[in-house]
Amino acid sequence: SPPDAVENVDHFGQYIHDEDPRGGALGKVMMSNPVSRSAPSSARLQALDKDRQYFVQVSKNESDQLGLMLDCARGESLDISHLVVGLVMPTGEIARWNNVQPSEATQVRQGDCVLEVNGIRGNVLEMQQQCGRNLVRLVLLRPIENIITIDKAGRRLGMVLMYSKNLEWAYGLSIASILEDGAVKEYNDAHPEQQVGKRDRVIAVNGSTGTPEELLSMINKNDIVQLLILQWPPV
User: Fold this and answer.
1) Residues 6+ apart with CB under 8 A from 44
2) What is the mean pLDDT of the chain?
């Protein structure tokens, strides 16, 4: 039988980008400092939407790289309308943009959500294609970071988690759905102001980061799990 944290997952999802189209080493990027340690309610998430949005515009030649690896776990149970920054490459137009920003407020970070590319929203394939144009205008959104502790007490966790295999830069476990008979559903019922939901992303387990497979292994082998979760306002 499958691990308790993965059910009905077709091929463990896929990513829009599966490699740098122009080749080259990807490198690794450490997570930024936490933005928040307590999850706001859905209403407060919506109120924070505009505060957490920022804009990026870069001009490049055909031979220049944008320098973003955009991540989108996909599956029948996961309705995707946006992309997540899985990796900011050490070279490229986004790295140059970051280097000249006066503060971190407008620097592109791993985990930021790409809402719009050149006016395109809601179609991740078209958004990804727009990233190859000479002029690229991005609307991005910072995540909220939420830490929750779940005691499985011998039960399954009760989340469908999507991830991509065999990508060096694959970023966390994307939550496709919350099952009705698991520990997370019970947690949500008891914590209406800190609920975990579809499209949130698990990026650390019990204080440790790792590959998606490593995160899943830590979830499955521990009865008590502390999850660091990225959340974005509804988009």
Assistant:
1) none
2) 76
pLDDT of 103 over the 50 cut: yes
Q: Can you say how many angstroms the Cα of residue 201 is from the centroid of all Cα atoms in its chain?
A: 5
Q: Are strands 173-178 and 159-162 parallel, antiparallel or unpaired?
A: antiparallel
- pLDDT, residue 232, reads 84
The three-class DSSP label of residue 189 is helix
DSSP-assigned letter for residue 106: G
Q: How many CB atoms lie within 10 A of CB 70?
A: 20
Question: Is residue 152 within 8 Å of 233, Cβ to Cβ?
Answer: no
Calpha distance 86→90 (Å, rounded): 13
Report the distance separating Cα 149 and Cα 51, nearest Å.
28
Question: By the 8 A CB rule, do 231 and 143 touch?
Answer: yes
Q: Which residues pair with 59 in a beta bridge?
A: 135
For every residue of 195-215, DSSP letters joined together read ---TT-EEEEETTB---HHHH
Give the C-alpha separation, 76 to 206, whole Å: 29
Are the beta carbons of 164 and 88 closer than 8 angstroms? no
Residue 149's pLDDT band, with cuts at 50, 70 and 90, is very high
Q: Are 179 and 152 in contact (CB under 8 A)?
A: no
Q: Which residues are registered as beta bridge partners of 85?
A: 70
Read off the pLDDT of residues 32-83 as tens digits, 9 standing for 90 and up. 223 333 344 444 344 445 578 999 999 998 788 999 988 775 544 445 667 8
